Amino acid sequence: MNLRALEGKKTLWAWAVGTFFGAGLMKPGPGTYGSVAAAILWFGSIHLLHPSPLHQTIGTLIAALAATAIGIPAATIVARESGREDPGHVVIDEVAGQIFALIAIPADWPHALLALLLFRLFDITKPPPVRNLERLHGGTGIMLDDVAAGLIALAIGHAALLIYP
């Protein structure tokens, strides 16, 4: 991490969102911490609010879209202020991708863990077209490769549910 950038002026809201309230500052593997934090928040909110499956799906989709929409400008700002193209401490992209992977899955630990493992697999390996999205400029590239990894994890996770209900 560029320590000079951290000592300089920071846009507080962008750093709070970009690092997902500090999860991205944890070592090692800040992306995994961001993904786990998202999965825990999703699981906790589902069990606290007890939504119907339809409302759970709609709420999760809205959360994923909101994380993406807010994450693009936040990631752009943090990258610029860090002096790095894709800083490792920006984990809002993993948060958004993880939430996409959780859409419409049963609200239990085995399924949440499957979504987490699938997302991390596709986020780390970046199969085509995921890797290509990294080339987009600024926060768009930072965010959309993880959104794509989340959507692939979503599709594979739901295919697994069809095969192994």
TrEMBL record:
Keywords: Membrane, Transmembrane, Transmembrane helix. One of its GO terms (molecular function) is phosphatidylglycerophosphatase activity. The lineage of its organism: Bacteria, Pseudomonadati, Acidobacteriota, Terriglobia, Terriglobales. InterPro entries: PgpA, PgpA-like_sf, YutG/PgpA. It comes from Granulicella tundricola (strain ATCC BAA-1859 / DSM 23138 / MP5ACTX9). This is Phosphatidylglycerophosphatase A. Residues 17-160 form the YutG/PgpA domain. The chain crosses the membrane at residues 61-79, 99-122, 143-164. GO terms for biological process: lipid metabolic process. Coiled coil: none annotated.
